[in-house]
Amino acid sequence: AAASEASLLVLGDPGAGKTWLLQNFVERRTNDGDAVVFLYAEDYAATTIKELEASLEVSNLVDALRAYKGKQRYLVIDSLDSLRVEITQRVFRDLIRLVQSQLPDWRIVASMRTFDARQSTDFHALFPTRTPSVHESVAIPARNLLVPVLSDSEIEDAIRQDQRLRFVFEGASEDLRTVLRNPLNLWLVLHLLDEN
Length: 196
What we know:
Elements: H1 2-5, E1 8-12, H2 18-31, E2 35-40, H3 49-56, H4 61-66, E3 73-78, H5 86-102, E4 106-113, H6 114-119, H7 121-126, E5 144-146, H8 152-161, H9 164-171, H10 174-179, H11 183-195
Parallel strand pairs: 1-4, 1-5, 2-3, 3-4
């Protein structure tokens, strides 16, 4: 629902589930008849929009996106924070500006780590806050949705599903319990337990 209102950043710590959330969003929107284009930013080392178009095998990205039919249209960009070189970041910022100016009916949903979002004033400007968010978000001047760590009830549910976790949590320090609230870290512990 948040993405249908306006473009937004999806934020969270590494391993929080941003990619999983975006993949599920893409699947649901596609199943509902919306047009969705998904880009994993790290897959494109382009230094210009033309290079990005070449790697996507389109001659004009705006025309290619305009051709998509659907009730709503979404450009989903995962892992903007994986772009560590300024020139590749600029290409994706330029892409977002281009879509915003040429295709105003498209919504942009992009993910990045919370830390990077706090530091990136360039991305703040691309996802302006229009109204106070009713969704859980990070206090930055950009429209965003936070993928939170696991809640107490979610941890309890995980323990009910796999009793081995009870032993892990009972013997864990408070710091380790905090680390285990991250879904990826909890998944890694389960895999380590499976190896034992």
